[in-house]
Amino acid sequence: MPVVTVEGRSLPLSNLEKVIYPDGTTKGEVLHHYAAHGDVLLPHLRDRPLSLLRYPDGPGGERFFTKNVPPGAPDWVTVCDVPRSGGGALRQVVVNDLPALMWVANLVVELHTPQWRAGSPGVADRLVFDLDPGAPATVVECCAVARWLRDRLAADGLTAYPKTSGGKGLHLLCAVRPAPAADTSAYARALAEEAAAALPGLAIAEMARRLRPGKVFIDHSQNAARKTTAAPYTLRAAPVPAVSAPLTWEEVEDCTDPSQLDIRLPDLPARLRTHGDLLRPLTDRRRARSLPR
């Protein structure tokens, strides 16, 4: 098992030649993705407790979701106590530096974060909408809903930033001044319901699956304190090495075919050279705005 040194930390990395994705993408290539792009990924993870969807044998193998610190965590990896709603606490990993990122990436995981930071559990500094299309609707319909939400959020003084979910849909994120998750949840629900009323036949705000065919479900529930969202730049446990990748609003406006927003591991370096981190403003607390009263 090779051992590498990352910023002074020794890390054993296992099974680098193991094929993780059906297209032949190996674990070594997965690890290279996180090593090469830690500078843009880490600001979106910093100080946020991680939930991990592990898929060590690829997306077709066993997948399991964990919030507790995985066994064998080095003593230098930051952990935090996260209160449980029913009492007690979970011990979760917090990835604040490249060695910790590489250690957790070696487990082959999706990275999921809440909308709040470890020091203030349940106090949100981000707002998120997960736009999930019900077939035959696609990400093209998600883009139409995203544009409506962008304009409606702007009317309330909030700036929305889009990214692919890494699956079929889109995520919209806003930086907000710290507020109880109950408040961000209530605001997100109200906007989702307003969008559904304004876009009949296109959007729904109800979770019932029987209502979803041909429409975009605006999932506002990920603003709840206990929920998490796939982090920017995480690879997904999908049949292809899809990335939850930031988008320009021009890409959202011009999308007429789902393939236009099918962003995979090999696409990311060129996108970053062209655009940099499109979600960087989310990490600048000076840009955060208060929820409307």
UniProtKB/TrEMBL annotation:
InterPro entries listed in its UniProt record: LigD_pol_dom (IPR014145), NHEJ_LigD (IPR052171)
The keyword ATP-binding is annotated on this UniProt entry: no
Query: Which key words tag this protein in UniProt?
Result: Ligase
- Tell me which residues make up the DNA ligase D polymerase domain: 26-278
> What does the record give as EC number?
6.5.1.1
Single GO MF annotation: DNA ligase (ATP) activity
Can you name this protein?
Non-homologous end-joining DNA ligase
Species of provenance: Streptomyces boetiae
Identify the taxonomic lineage of the organism of origin.
Answer: Bacteria, Bacillati, Actinomycetota, Actinomycetes, Kitasatosporales
